[in-house]
Amino acid sequence: MTDWIRPTSLAEAVDARRDHPDYLVLAGGTDVMVGAIDRPAPIGVIDIFGLPELCVCEHDDEGRLRLGAGMSYAHLLGDARVAAAAPALVESAREIGALQIQARGTLGGNLGTCSPVGDTLPVLLALDAEIELRGPDGTRWLPVDDFCTGYRTTALAADELIVSVRLPVDSSSREQVWRKVGTRRAQSISKVMLCASTHRRDDGRLADVRIGLGAIAARPLRARATEAVLEGALPDGPLAARAAQAVLNDIAPIDDVRSRADYRRATTARLIRRWVLHLAQTSTTTNTGS
Amino acid sequence: MKLRFRLNDEDKELDVEPFRRLLDVLREDLHLTGSKEGCGEGECGACTVLIDGAPVNSCLVPVAQLDGHDIRTIEGLARQGTDGEVLLDEVQQALVSFGGTQCGICTPGIALCASAALTREPNADRARLRELLAGNLCRCTGYQLIIDALVDAASTRRGNSKR
Based on the structure, what is the number of domains in chain A? Predict the structure, then answer.
């Protein structure tokens, strides 16, 4: 029979993880229970679903919003602080599954699975979120880009737990956009996802541009080549075209049951182009064309 | 593993393999076969039950996670009147009146999900109801009669709450 450990505190959970690195860490189960009936049951489970310390949502002393890894998508959707700091995160959560999945699926679970189609991951990349990991030796923070290491692999050590996600203080002042392309708004697994965020300088030029993409490579990733094209530039039609071209160097999509590589390339380019055109149209600075 | 939980307003104790799916324990051990298995992977909503009032896919919940919680299945959605008669939930009654059902496999999940959704969002309109029910697939009806029924149930509930 599966050994079932239900810690009542984070400290207990960390101890359990240290003592049983081979046990399954389980939150809402929406990923790990898919197909579980066809696999042998795990030898043990560390059940952290609903652990209060993992469900906190609070600003730290420096004003950064810290989201507990155990927060469900329903939690994220219902919290005004999340809506203020990261509207793109709320939008992504709204399109994950439907009510049933949103009630159980968690932010930490999306990170832990680190699927290329994990819907919150492009958002966390575009906001440059940091992930709090806790093990027997204490806490470390990793940028989400370093946390995701490959196809469903992460930097999480066998004795660590994902504790929280921290959003930089400037998140709420960023212009954020979220776009998911799939067969249906609800319940569908993405063909392509884009989350982009930027500041604008007083002269209208883009500053500190960050683009997170999903379903277009083995792991969710930052579109660094595209960011470089956009950084410091004034959004207009030609820039949109150049960015749409650049993004093809950032991605490595595959053919699979949900889409084809060429469709994913064309769609990613279009999402980038439309975002830059949107920025051009919503520019508050008069473009003198100089 | 010994579990204690509340099931359809009754206290339950169960000694089960903790990693088994809630759906299987409901159907096989507790003989509550109203919850159906459609896809078995959280896509179709036919296995929807309410945990602490929230709709969830019981095919994705290991039964150990019920411990200490309150579960409602389709068998517990209707209430009993003072004379022992069955009082259907407004959503159930509307599904009957409008014919919002055909083969019936999706119906328990739809009734539970809609009932819970309307408790939280009594003013949900037709468009919002479609969104709230997006996790419940129906292969027979084309959804129109289901949504018609739910719009009616919402209005009935609002009327009842004013009395």
Answer: 2
In a domain, A43, yes or no: no
Q: Is the pTM of this model over 0.90?
A: yes
Cα–Cα separations (whole angstroms), residue B159 to A258, B24, B90, B127: 45, 38, 11, 20
Could you say which of A45, A100, A185 has the minimum Cβ distance to residue B57?
Answer: A100
Quick check: A122 and A212 in contact, CB under 8 A?
A: yes
Query: How far is the first Cα of chain A from the last one, in angstroms, to the nearest whole number?
Result: 72
A62 is in which domain, residue-wise? 50-170
pLDDT tens per residue across span A252-271: 999 888 899 999 999 999 99
C-alpha–C-alpha distance, residues A78 and A99, integer Å:
13
Distance CA A195, CA A210 (A): 8
Q: How far is A91 from chain B, CA to nearest CA, in Å?
A: 14
pLDDT tens for B117-151 read 999 999 999 999 999 999 999 999 999 999 999 99
> Per-residue pLDDT averaged across A94-114, rounded?
96
B61 touches chain A (CB under 8 A): yes
Name the CATH architecture for the domain at B79-162.
Orthogonal Bundle (1.10)
- CATH of residue A127: 3.30.465.10
Please report, for residues A34, A106, B61, B146, the alpha-carbon distance to residue B40 in angstroms, rounded to integers and kept in the order given.
7, 20, 11, 23
Judge whether B21 is closer than 8 Å to chain A, CB to CB. yes
pLDDT tens readout for residues B51-104 = 999 999 999 999 999 999 999 999 999 998 899 899 999 999 999 999 999 999
- A234 shares a domain with A214: yes
Cβ atoms A189, A101 nearer than 8 A: no
